[in-house]
Amino acid sequence: MTKIYKYRLIIILLIMVGLMGAVRWSYRNYPWEKVEVEVPSAPLLTPTSAPTIDADYPLWKLLPYQGIGFVVDRYVEPLTLTVTVKGVDKKIVEKEIVKWFKENKVATDSHKLIFNTQSP
After folding, report:
1. CA 31 to chain centre
2. Cβ pair 112, 81 in contact under 8 A
3. Is residue 48 very low, low, confident or very high in pLDDT (cuts 50, 70, 90)?
4. Which of 43, 49, 57, 83 is deepest in the core (most CB within 10 A)?
């Protein structure tokens, strides 16, 4: 009896193998019904062009741009920049911004500037 108890796991596994074999034997000639499964086709990946942020926002990587008495903050709309001016004449600030446009090869008439004046 102690030898059987010693090999109980192997005996249980052999019984399970026997049951599985009997089930397989009983279904060996079973006429299985074929079911057609429609596999959705994956869309073909085509190369696309990246969105052109630089066309409408050519200076966005360089923002915020600071000068003496002013800061070019951000784009409000495409090709529209906000400029915060602190105690400096707008004409001087506008000349500095045009100079910055030329340095970065951006057309000077392409952008609209919105000035916000702050008291010093």
Report:
1. 50
2. yes
3. low
4. 83
